[in-house]
Amino acid sequence: MKTVMIVAGESSGELYGSLLAKQLRHIWPDVTVIGIGGERMRAAGVKILSGISSAFGITELLTSIKRIRESFKTAAKALATFKPEVVVLIDFPDFNFRLGAVAKRHGLKVLYYVSPQVWAWRKGRVKTMGEIADRIAVILPFEKEIYTMAGIPCEFVGHPAMEEIDETQKTEDSTDPRGIKMRESLGLSEGRPVIALLPGSRAHELKTLLPVFIELTRMVAKEFPDGKCILPLAPNIDADRFAEDIATLKREGVLIVRGDSIKCLASSDVAVVASGTATLQAALMGIPLVVVYKLSLFSYLIGKALLSVKHISLVNIIAGEEVVRELIQRRAKAENIVQELKRILNDDQYRSGMTSSMTRIRDMFSGRQPSRRVAEIIGELAGWKTSER
């Protein structure tokens, strides 16, 4: 029996795990996929052993330690019990590095899919990756050279966000290139500016950014009287924990959508996005945006001391220059965001320059099928014959 274990620790990684699981089951219908993840992986046919247990930042991590330890014990036990032919570790390095070491002690093949940000901080982790991973599949074009120079087998497979975007666009009416029907399906009217608000999927992101977004929506109502704000909530977040803020946003006229972040972005004219995968998603779709982010002061100071990159958003990092404005910590205020929104919506030359840079970024990822390719690499590592597909 073919068995693969996929381990994802946060919302974006869990999405990639679900796309990979679908491809695995499509190519090898008899494969059993187990893992650490969430509802999207479960819906893709993965037997979930433990739920997502991600945290970010020093103080944010402390509140999740017990849950993370329980998930680790469950995952480590599963390695011994199921003995999967291949263990796929998706990002989440502090958890997955330890689990990868356990997998190697059991003599299991390890594929690391989605590299930790070794180019941003803790570059010594490149060596650790080489010790625990038989192969590495990276999703950003500049990452391959880092591992190749270290003599570690690595392949740039493309970014799964592109797959999700392409799939959404395929399911929409091809006779509706301007997305009018897509907007209507979300209850949005044609002709009014739509502002997408994406606060991230981690609890600390919602805690720090939802209050900013509440103030922002009040200012948007004054600056753009005919505008409409739409906020997609990541499927794995605990909506009850943030029920008060969500209720306030609704009272301010914000359309709250559960999931469907790609559809919400595609229906928007501009976006306000927490730094992370969603910034790249917006860029790949050509949606102008402003990046915002806030951490606890302690986490921010530690991160600032350790980071070795000039920018924090994937858009700017990939481009190697500032394509989109980044408003971090104290600058992540409603008034600053509104000023940037006004510039994007009212300055045609500024907006055009931004979207032109986004087109160049999209070209780096076009034509690739990351989930399909990663599934093929798994088959190569496991020694499954191609005739079985």
TL;DR of this structure?
The chain is 50% helix and 16% strand.
Write the layout of secondary structure elements.
Layout lengths: L2 E6 L2 H17 L4 E6 L1 H5 L3 E5 L6 H5 L2 H18 L3 E5 L2 H13 L3 E5 L11 H8 L2 E4 L4 H7 L4 E3 L3 H12 L8 H6 L8 E5 L4 H21 L4 E6 L9 H9 L3 E4 L2 H6 L3 E5 L2 H8 L4 E5 L3 H10 L7 H6 L5 E4 L5 H13 L1 H18 L4 H13 L7
Parallel strand pairs: 1-2, 1-4, 2-3, 4-5, 5-6, 6-7, 8-9, 8-11, 9-10, 11-12, 12-13
Helix pairs in contact: 1-18, 4-5, 5-6, 10-11, 10-16
The CATH homologous superfamily of the largest domain is named: Glycogen Phosphorylase B
Cα radius of gyration in angstroms? 21 Å
**What is the helix content?**
40-55%
Straight-line distance between termini:
14 Å
- CATH top level of the largest domain? Alpha Beta
- The counted number of beta strands is 13
CATH architecture of the largest domain, please? 3-Layer(aba) Sandwich
Task: Kindly name the structural category.
Answer: alpha/beta
Overall residue-averaged pLDDT value: 88
Task: Provide the number of structural domains.
Answer: 2
Strand content: 15-25%
Q: Any idea what the shape is?
A: globular
Low-confidence stretches: 54-60
What is the spatial order of strands in the main beta sheet?
3-2-1-4-5-6-7
The total of helices stands at 18
Biggest sheet layout: 7 strands, parallel
Assembly of the depicted chains: single chain
What is the CATH topology of the largest domain? Rossmann fold
